[in-house]
Structure prediction request, 269 residues.
Amino acid sequence: MSQMTSLLRWLHPATVPPKLRGWVIPLAGLFLWWAAYRFQWTDSQFFVPISKVLETGLHMTQGGEIFIALGASLYRMLLGFAFGSLLGLAVGTLLGVSRLAERMVGPSFHTVKQVSLFAWIPLISLWFGLGDLAKIAFLSLAAFFPVVLNTFEGIRSVAREHVEVARIFAYSRWQLFAKVVLPSAAPSIFTGIYLALIYAWLATLGAEYLLTSGVGIGNLLTDGREHFWMDQVLLGIVVVGIVGFVLNWTASKVEARLLRWRSAQTAQF
Prediction:
């Protein structure tokens, strides 16, 4: 117990350098996972020691199963994210720049967006089957709505004063959009794309779980549940969390790099 007490004291936020404090909760969780079996706090068959999960991960890595499943999931996710985001940018831009389009399409769009994402699965499965095409369509839908909403809001939130100045300088419609509207709306648009990426990854697991044809991380979790392979289930959860973290970190770095000009402008004032 003295070792456990000293380790918990070492993991206390006050004793951890600021740059490493984000690791406190994950390390504490891993420690409690290890301690649950080390000190025999549980003997449930639905929970396995961390060493068993690591062993399964090593075995599936050497055999290539984990890479095949992860590659299939990321392939579907990226395709669905790309299709949904591109269509969302087009629709959001149209609604943002055209009052007529907003009046004609807006009410229908705002009605459809209230439908739960997973409520579309029965219809998608009838139209596209249970294969990759159905999953990509579902993921495109998951990415579509946040991009439309944030693109629309970003364009409509452009300051009227900026538009008036552009008109004084006799900007064409294209110049107005490219030099005034798009830069002003860029942060909101990137927020929508960032949300679309996260939603697409989360929806990937749901699509693979409910549309069970094929391989993927979701199917890996399903197989583990059906056969009571808890080491495989927990391994899948760990992989999902790691991939989600990497996607979130990558998206934030890309956004910061592409929008660094805004920080430079802010610093000037």
Notes: The chain has one domain: 73-268. The mean pLDDT is 80. The CA atoms of residues 33 and 231 lie 13 Å apart.
